[in-house]
Amino acid sequence: MRKEWREYHSENGEIWEIFANTADHEHPEDLISNSGSHAIMRKYMETSDYVQVTIIPCARITDGITKREGKEKYFRLKINLLNGEPWFGISGNFFDKEEVLKLASLFTGLTQKQAERVWVTKKLGNFNTNRLDL
After folding, report:
1. pLDDT by residue (tens digit) across 24-50?
2. Which residue of 55, 60, 129, 130 lies most exposed, with the fewest beta carbons within 10 A?
3. How many helices, marked H, and strands, marked E, lie in the chain?
4. What residues contact 107, with CB distance under 8 A and at least 6 apart?
């Protein structure tokens, strides 16, 4: 889903932002600051090609009857773009909390090309697939 930043300014000098899907309509409450001032100016800004980093829990119900859980202490890493391009990576391996946090920090603040190089170097998996062969 393509995202955008919406920045609003009031006559009193207040500034607020909304991070929204580009397809979402503006709501009347978006035009009012937390203190009740109305926006007199707004600006819509596209996102760039910096990656979004997501930590996905691997926890799952392994037995529907007993509701037994499995892999609750493990996580996968996902990187994707906010500008609408259909590009993403989900780590083929899962990691414990400390490991996935270290990996996530490697991608924070990177562009798509930079993130691709790190992803390949760390052998984290393929791009643009939800299939994770074990």
Report:
1. 999 999 999 999 999 999 999 999 999
2. 130
3. 2, 8
4. 51, 53, 77, 79, 115, 118, 119
